[in-house]
Amino acid sequence: MLPEAEARAIGKEAGVPSTMSGLNVFRVMSRHPTLAGVVAKQLAMLLYRGNKLDDRLRELIIMRIGWRTGALYEWTQHWPVALHYGLTEEETLAVRDPDSATCLGPAERAVIAATDDVLDDGAVSETTWQACAEHLASDEERLELVAAICNWNTFAILLKSLNIPLEDGVDAWPPDGVPSPDA
To answer: Are 151 and 43 in contact (CB under 8 A)?
Structure first.
């Protein structure tokens, strides 16, 4: 992992937003500045720039992937993001066991099912597509649904493979410290 100041300088040259360049994941990825810039650009688009998929639904996807794959960094980083975009703790924790959750509506269940389909079978099933289409009216939203699932699944693999540590002072697996069974 590069020192934070060095990663920020490289990130500035590579197009990594300042909000990302000091994070541990980009302190590692900045060893390949071109890759760091491409990854950051995709993340920024899906998170902030012109995204069409509802922020709450996107965060449920990310949290489900973090939980299912045991990606500690992903879960921990996106816990406050999910709450920021209006998910409650109960809704966010519901990704651990969505079948038993009473707080999730049909749209939330549809995107979680799409996430599970991709994680389990590599594609969204026809039945799940139909459920998603009831809540994601535009082609752009449906494209971003798949892009988000693929992006954060890839990111989970990257984070775990590179053994990216949490930032100093950050507590693991918020809010209760309970790790994914796959962790």
So the answer is: yes
How many whole angstroms separate alpha carbon 130 and alpha carbon 169?
43
Record the tokens describing residue 54, joined without a space. Answer: 């509802």
| Residue 180 belongs to a domain | no
pTM listed for this prediction: 0.95
Q: How many CB atoms lie within 10 A of CB 72?
A: 20
pLDDT of the residue at 50: 73
Number of domains in the chain: 2
Judge contact between 114 and 64, C-beta under 8 A: no
Structure confidence at residue 21 (pLDDT)? 96
Is the pLDDT confidence value at 108 over 90?
yes
Count other C-beta atoms under 10 Å from residue 181's C-beta: 9
**Using one digit for the tens of pLDDT, what is the confidence trace for 45-83?**
999 877 899 999 999 999 999 999 999 999 999 999 999
DSSP string covering 149-163: HHHHHHHHHHHHHTT
Please tell me whether residues 71 and 127 are part of one structural domain: yes
CB 65 within 8 A of CB 115: yes
- Is 80 in the same domain as 97? yes
Please check whether residues 72 and 106 belong to one and the same domain. Answer: yes
Q: What is the mean pLDDT of residues 130-158?
A: 96
User: Residue 37's domain spans which residues?
Assistant: 4-47
